[in-house]
Amino acid sequence: MTELPKLLLHADALLHARWVLPMHEVGKVLEHQIIAITNGCIVDMGPRVELLGRYMAGYEYFLDHHVVMPGFINAHGHSPMTLLRGYADDMPLRPWLEQKIWPAETRWLSESYVAAGTRLAVAEMLLSGTTTFTDMYFHSEVVGSVADECGIRAQLASPVFDFPTAWTGSADEGIAKAERLHDQYSGHPRIGVAFGPHAPYTVSDAPLRKIAMHSEELDIGIHMHLHENAQEISEGKQLYGLRPLRRLKQLDLLSPRLQCVHMTHLLDDEIQLLKDTGAHVIHCPASNLKLASGICRVADLQAHGVNVALGTNGSASNNALDMLAELRLAALLAKGSSNDASVVPAAQALAMATLNGARALGIDNKVGSIEPGKQADLIAIDLEHPRTQPVYDPCSTLTYSAAASQISHVWVDGQALVVNHQLTRMDLAQVLEEARRWGAGIAAGA
Ligand SMILES: [Zn+2]
User: Which end of the chain has the lower number of beta carbons within 10 A, N or C?
Assistant: First the structure.
């Protein structure tokens, strides 16, 4: 009797990876794996020797010198500010905003400005391994349509200010715009919407209460700059008699839907409050250092079980949207500021840039780790380079040695958006030309 031929399963793509960091267990490293992707989803993963011959695939990627891991989640930024990269540096936060950034935005802001800046940001983020980004900027609907067309995943934190801006006349209008945007993107596979009250010093109590109520009704996030520097905290105390986090507690904003961006100068009882309410912290170390804003007590937050994600902030205050650089800085800064070299170990820094970001954005059921059933938001990093050899522990190599330029492949929802370091859906030359044109105009008009 002849043996029946084995029936091959279909997969859209197979990734043959030298190493895999699945990230659902911090520090776990798997070797010689195959990941099978179908309809944008991870459908299978296992040792190469076991899975070889089980699948017939449309595409196969042989990543013999690569680590495959979940894509980075840049949990805080202002994408269109790429057009002001290097426009004003070496200034503290408030004069930097009030004398340089806000006047330039008043002069130049338009839908085409936002579209050009977002395209530049998305190109930079994809090429450096970011598969999801949060954006808080005017014309969120333009940022959303650029993200949609480029295939990246995004959370649009639609901004709310008390005072008139180039986009809204009042806080109520900002809230209404956020809700319309939420309706527009409801059911979208890659784009979500959150309320983006700008900061405690730009949004008063009544709209914050309204946001707290509506975010609960709609079950969407609240994304807010909070405790960015000592001035914000002391002014908050003068105006409201409370430090900003306590004020937000009184206004019912603290819950697992709240994404607190920055959180420098924290007191012990505030760390406990974050833990008790399940609010998330989004740490932006480069921006905090560059604007001399203060230091986020990441090691203490993590010791208390608070979820800490990572963001680059806008590229006017960083000045790069490079999550690998950001996670390295987060690891180094935590050690230096706590006098303890064992805090934020390499694998933990990688978790902050992936699964913790997914948790903060409420999308950890979809992305942030490599598990069958999750969406295939993945990156491959080529370690065949002098700065990343030899490899004892890929977590250490990635956190302390690797550069963004070693990221060779990026998939979002299983779509290959970067292959062999090249963008597949975006015309990079055109994106750069457009950015140069805006830069020349801003420089001439400054
Ligand atoms: Zn920011």
Answer: N
CATH number of the structural domain 72-361: 3.20.20.140
Q: How many angstroms separate the alpha carbon of residue 315 from the centre of ligand 1? A: 10
Nearest alpha-carbon partner for 228 in 216, 218, 243, 210: 243
Domains of the chain, by residue range, sit at: 9-70+372-423, 72-361
Report the SS3 class of residue 15.
strand
Tokens of 58: 């449309």
Ligand 1 centroid vs 314 CA: distance in angstroms? 6
Give CATH for domain 9-70+372-423.
Answer: 2.30.40.10
Span from the CA of 401 to the centroid of ligand 1 (angstroms):
27
CA of 77 to the centre of ligand 1 (A): 6
- Strands of the 55-70 sheet, one edge to the other: 41-47, 30-38, 9-20, 55-70, 378-382, 407-412, 415-419, 422-423
User: Among residues of the chain, what percentage have pLDDT more than 70?
Assistant: 98
Instruction: Report the residue count for the chain.
Output: 446
Judge if 9-70+372-423 and 72-361 fold alike in CATH terms: no
Q: What pLDDT does 4 receive?
A: 57
Ligand 1 midpoint to CA 261 (Å): 7
Amino acid of residue 416: A
Report pLDDT digits (tens) over 328-384: 999 999 999 999 999 999 999 999 999 999 999 999 999 999 999 999 999 999 999
State residue 166's pLDDT score.
81
Distance 338 CA to ligand 1 centre (A): 24
- Scanning 191-252, the segments in alpha helix (DSSP H) are 205-218, 230-240, 244-250
| Short-list 378, 364, 363, 409, CA closest to 37 | 378
CB atoms within 10 A of CB 278: 14
CA–CA separation, 146 and 434 (whole Å): 14
Distance 172 CA to ligand 1 centre (A): 21
Q: Is the CB of residue 316 less than 8 Å from the CB of residue 325?
A: no
Closest CA to 404 of 130, 151, 134, 153: 130
Least confident span in 53-57, 93-97, 111-115, 373-377: 93-97
